[in-house]
Amino acid sequence: MRVHSIEKMTAEVNMRTDAKQPGRWFRCFGASPNARRRLICFHHAGGGASLFREWHRHCSPDTEVWAVAIPGRETRITEKPVDQLSALAGLLVQALPQELPFAFFGHSLGAVVSFELARQLHERRLAVPQHLFVSACTAPQLCRRDRSRAHLSDAELLRLLQGFGGTPKEILGHPGYLEMVLSVLRADFNLIDEYIVPEGCDVRFPMTAYAGSSDANIRLDKILAWDRWATRDFVCHQFDGDHFYLNEHREALIKDVLSRWGKSVVSNAADVYA
């Protein structure tokens, strides 16, 4: 067996072991001793958990905000990014804290990551999110591309990222950092571009979609197609803004999320005892 194969196997074993440590895979912002539920958030391609750093400031003490922390960025910058969604979700299943009820909020790539995680939780008969909030993302059954964007040249990838409005100008002047960012982007785009919903999957969750009214990158009809995976009363709420509308409308968005989450829990309980 080649040495690099042994190293790869060792890295995979270590990653599976690490997945059992929630603090490594999820960051909690604004921990509260009075927490009764958790809003678990998933970031866009090239992003990180810090996107949700301030969200807890708009939540009551009974709701904690957690954010996924995946390899290749921020606190895990030295680790190799994961580029297969089923594998990433499998690791997150092992690490997901489940002692409190939870809902998922996923933005862009994060919406599909949260869906696949919810699907695997359901498949393994574990606790599932009480509500799935998906933002600025094509429905999972439409994600697969003939050619993953991971194969774009550096210049093409940068133009794509700039089109989404997600490229801080300061990184362009630092070649070493830029190389790392592009490596993460390739892995992240591969997560979504090679994703196929498993054949026969028929999971459904209470679900709400969000979109920026001037998002030129995600067609509204592809967001509305999330209805395929919703239990009932599916809606898509639009905010003024582009793909990153959530930065401008953070407080209003969180208020809407928490309101709809509460209503869906009441509605589900009514269904159970009807």
Automatic annotation (TrEMBL):
Can you tell me which residues the record assigns to a coiled coil?
none
**Which GO terms of type biological process are on file?**
lipid biosynthetic process
Per the record, the domain of life is Bacteria
Entry-linked InterPro entries? AB_hydrolase_fold, TEII, Thioesterase
Q: Which residues form the Thioesterase domain?
A: 37-257
Q: Which family does it belong to?
A: Belongs to the thioesterase family.
- State what protein this is by name: Thioesterase
